[in-house]
Every structure is written in structure tokens, then in C-alpha cells.
Amino acid sequence: MTYAIGLTGGIGSGKTTIANLFATHGITIIDTDAIAHAITAPGGAAMPAIRREFGDTFVAPDGSLDRARMREAVFGDNLAKTRLEAITHPLIRTESERAAAEAEGPYLIFVVPLLVESGTWRQRVQRVLVVDCAEETQIARVMSRNHFTREQVQAIMVRQATRAQRLSAADDVIDNDVQHAPLAPQVDRLHAAYLKLAAQAQGN
Ligand code: ATP
């Protein structure tokens, strides 16, 4: 099995930005958020079960998930959230493994926003790479990217692992407060380290 890195970080920390830099080294990126989106798009693999479990009112006219409605339904309702995840998580996992089996190259990267919160993903990867930045940086980025209020961003952040919890689960950390350290050299250094680790793992 290909050596696997799990890339994680809080909302707006820079996971996609950093995954794109690894991709410039030819590394396969498997983005679980993109998979989650694809399986709830029109004709997506999760849609029949969502329709069955939640009803037609959660399906938009084009056959995709009515995201706004579902967000409202699961917000603060753990049972509904668990029911949704019971449908989506196994499909995301299956699709991720299918993509991993096809991946070429010395190692691959799974981008998993809630990796630290998920025991199964932590077990699946050989190393956990955390994208770290100040909470204020996350808030400013998401406010500007999504036109959210500070309160909306904070409401999402309190539902995620804390910065300290993420850092304590990390094997490697990228500092994405750009005033501290530029990104490309950090990615280059980790890429070199991962090439070595993947080669060692191959030899065992
Ligand atoms: P999400 O969890 O919300 O999907 P993410 O962790 O994938 O976010 P990105 O989408 O990479 O984060 O970055 C969030 C926003 O911050 C984007 O608009 C991105 O362009 C910007 N951003 C990320 N890193 C930097 C940086 N080093 N310098 C400037 N802008 C950045």
C-alpha cells in the first residue's frame, strides 16, 4: 500500500493551498471534501440513501443535496448529523480507497479536515501533517473568502478540534501564518522527508 500522509487543519488554515504545493511535486492528492461534494452532487452515490433516509425535501430539483436545508437540519441535532454521516462517511472512505489504489508516485496525501477527530483516519495514515495558523488568521481568511461574520466562523471553529488538540496529534506541522515562514520551503523540506520515509517503508 502506498505510503500515506493525512493533511489536516482547521477551517481556513490553508489545507487546499498546501495540498496544491505538494501536487506541484507530482504527489497525488485525495481531497475528502471534494469527494463529499461529489457524492452529494446530482446522481451522486449518496443521494438515493439520503432521499430514503431524510425525504424528498432534502433533494434539490437537480437531484443534488439541498445543502442549506441539510446544514440547518444537522446544526445542533446530533442524531440527524449521525444519520447523515452513517451514509456519507463509508462512501467517502470507499471512494478515497479507490483513488488511493489508483495513485501513482512514492506517497500520497489524503486531505481530511476532521482527521484529528476521526480515529479511523488517524489509523489509516502513516503520518499526520497539521497546517497551523493563529485562530485570528483563520477567522480573517474565512470572513474574507466566504463573506461570513466573525460569529459564523467561530460557530464552525468551536465544533472542530482545538489548535492544541490538533498540534498534539501532529507528526509534522506547517506554519501557515505567512508573516512567520514562507510556505514553499516548508513543503519542499517535508516532501524530501516523505520521499525518504516512503522509500524506507517500501524496503521493510
Ligand atoms: P477549508 O477548510 O475552509 O476548506 P482550507 O484549510 O482548505 O479551508 P484554503 O482554502 O487553502 O484553506 O485557504 C483559506 C483561504 O485563505 C483561501 O482564500 C486562501 O487563498 C487563503 N490563504 C491560505 N493560505 C494563505 C497564505 N499563506 N497566504 C495568503 N492567503 C492564504
UniProtKB/TrEMBL annotation:
The keyword Nucleotide-binding applies. The keyword Transmembrane does not apply. Pathway: Cofactor biosynthesis; coenzyme A biosynthesis; CoA from (R)-pantothenate: step 5/5. Its EC number is 2.7.1.24. It is an enzyme of class 2 (transferase). ATP binds at residues 12-17. It is found in: Cytoplasm. One of its GO terms (molecular function) is dephospho-CoA kinase activity. Pfam families: CoaE. Keywords: ATP-binding, Coenzyme A biosynthesis, Cytoplasm, Kinase, Nucleotide-binding, Transferase. Gene3D superfamilies: P-loop containing nucleotide triphosphate hydrolases. Belongs to the CoaE family. Catalyzes the phosphorylation of the 3'-hydroxyl group of dephosphocoenzyme A to form coenzyme A. This is Dephospho-CoA kinase.
